[in-house]
Design goal:
Blueprint: H1 3-16, E1 23-27, H2 30-42, E2 47-50, H3 56-62, E3 67-71, H4 79-96, E4 100-104, H5 118-126, E5 134-137, E6 145-148, E7 151-156, E8 164-167, H6 187-192, E9 199-202, H7 211-222, E10 228-231, H8 236-252, E11 256-260, H9 263-272, H10 276-286, E12 296-300, H11 305-312, E13 317-322, H12 324-327, H13 332-348, E14 352-357, H14 368-385, E15 390-394, H15 396-405, E16 410-417, E17 421-427, E18 437-441, H16 450-456, H17 458-465
Parallel strand pairs: 1-3, 1-4, 2-3, 4-11, 5-10, 5-11, 9-10, 12-14, 12-15, 13-14, 15-18
Antiparallel strand pairs: 2-16, 6-7, 7-8, 16-17, 17-18
Helix pairs in contact: 1-8, 4-5, 8-9, 13-14, 14-15, 16-17
Length: 466
């Protein structure tokens, strides 16, 4: 089938299902969900990211959406919690008549059978996706994540010119993740250990023969009724080919489940419209972040080495250390009140403040859930005492709990920052929160001077280019 036919089928599918969204995604943490939001919005799709499946009343106030997402915290959940959470999301997406249901995972696929299981997600969401194809997209080249012959590789390092590529089970950070260390690089085996028994690999050589040959190979694989097909990804041309497969199968049959990082959204957007890649570049040129108009607060709960580099490079901020043991200890409420006061005072005086958990947290991995909740409580106190228009949160789990604690209901795309980081606009029923600009970033994302970029916006980017 030609690309033009795929695009026509996708357009026919949209007309068939009315004006409702044709693409829905669940982000297993907030930072990754905002990256997917950015890719869809920059491809020209009107997209909103919610903190819970929206009801009809909320949707009616927003007008027509091409895509929507739910930012969740499934990567921190037990299998039973995941099943309950994703059953609700899957049912809500199915009721909207979406054609593609995307379970958005971290680009490093870090997960485990007992926490944040991708296998549980696939089994739960398949109940709402009768399409024979469940597609797992294995890489995201713009973040230097690659999947070749089913094995996952990822870059490490703060400087693009000094980054090395590691097999994920030898990655200096992800192989030692405090909650879900990656000890297996073959994603078929990784998913099999999480209960997805029959995962077949479509390797990169299949793309070179053209769309017709690729579709024939996919149909041949589907004849054996696999639980999922894993697609290699080495470059953007591979995403284009995969996107055409997803769009074709979503248009001709029941709703389709796709699993992967934001590369799923990239692939699908490219398949929907040949101009999407051009629109991507155009959006980067014209949608920019203005310099912050007031003090900026950054809360860094991430323990990654890259975030540590970014903290050290944040020269425009007053830095406030947060002791994870005291944040989660018997006198936590008193400690948080003291730290909140140390933060809000300088913010009121117009200074930028960066609060960060110290590396002692590495020795308290079992207390990480309590630490993320403590970070959320701290953020709520700070924003209750200082009126801010721009904030940043570093750490996937920290972001998920902290933003939920604010009581807002959604995010829309505002502007990009480099290396997979997005600035969004917060939507809330409370006037003091509505419209706040918020950056959410995972531990492995962003340039070394990311927090400085959050202050300077496009002015800083122009200075770097001169």
């Amino acid at each position: 089938m030609s690309e033009a036919q795929v695009i026509k089928e996708s357009s026919d599918s949209r007309r068939l299902h009315g004006n409702g969204p044709h693409y829905a995604f669940y982000g297993d943490d907030f930072t990754g969900a905002t990256d997917t939001l950015a890719h869809l919005a920059r491809a020209g799709l009107r997209t909103m990211l919610f903190f819970a499946p929206p009801d009809a009343a909320r949707l009616s106030t927003l007008g027509r959406l091409d895509a929507l997402g739910v930012a969740g915290a499934a990567r921190t959940m037990s299998p039973a919690e995941q099943q309950a959470e994703l059953s609700r999301a899957g049912a809500a997406f199915a009721a909207l008549g979406v054609r593609v249901m995307h379970y958005k995972v971290c680009s490093t696929f870090d997960s485990a059978p007992e926490i944040g299981s991708i296998g549980v997600a696939i089994r739960t969401l398949r109940a709402h996706c009768a399409n024979p194809l469940a597609a797992v997209v294995g890489g995201q080249p713009n973040l230097r994540r690659y999947c070749v012959f089913a094995e996952l590789f990822a870059a490490a390092g703060a400087d693009d010119h000094q980054q090395s590529i590691y097999r994920i089970d030898r990655h200096p950070t992800m192989s030692r993740h405090p909650v879900t260390p990656m000890h297996e690089a073959d994603l078929r085996v990784h998913l099999q250990r999480q209960g997805v028994e029959n995962v077949q690999s479509v390797d990169w050589r299949c793309y070179t023969a053209g769309d017709a040959a690729l579709q024939t190979e996919v149909r041949r694989r589907l004849d054996s009724k696999p639980d999922a097909l894993l697609f290699d990804v080495l470059d953007d041309s591979h995403l284009q080919a995969i996107g055409r497969v997803i769009a074709h199968h979503a248009a001709e049959s029941a709703p389709l489940l796709a699993v992967g990082a934001s590369s799923v959204a990239q692939a699908y957007s490219l398949a929907l419209d040949q101009r999407a890649e051009h629109q991507h570049a155009e959006a980067r040129e014209h949608v920019t972040l203005a310099r912050a108009q007031g003090p900026v607060f950054v809360l860094a709960g991430s323990l990654s080495p890259l975030t540590e580099v970014q903290i050290a490079a944040a020269h425009s901020y007053l830095r406030v250390e947060l002791d994870p043991l005291q944040m989660t200890g018997d006198s936590a409420s008193d400690y948080l009140a003291t730290r909140a006061a140390a933060i809000t005072g300088p913010l009121r005086d117009g200074r930028n403040v960066l609060a960060f958990t110290t590396r002692r947290a590495e020795h308290t991995a079992g207390a990480l859930p309590r630490l993320t909740h403590a970070c959320a409580a701290l953020l709520r106190q700070v924003l209750g005492n200082a009126h801010l228009r721009r904030i940043g949160i570093a750490g996937g789990d920290t972001s998920s709990f902290a933003v939920r604690a604010l009581g807002a209901w959604g995010l829309s795309y505002l502007a990009p920052l480099p290396a997979g980081v997005t600035v969004c606009r917060l939507h809330a029923d409370r006037a003091e929160l509505d419209g706040m600009e918020i950056m959410l970033k995972g531990g492995q994302m962003g340039d070394a001077d990311l927090f400085e970029q959050l202050l300077a916006g496009d002015d800083g980017d122009k200075a770097r280019r001169r």
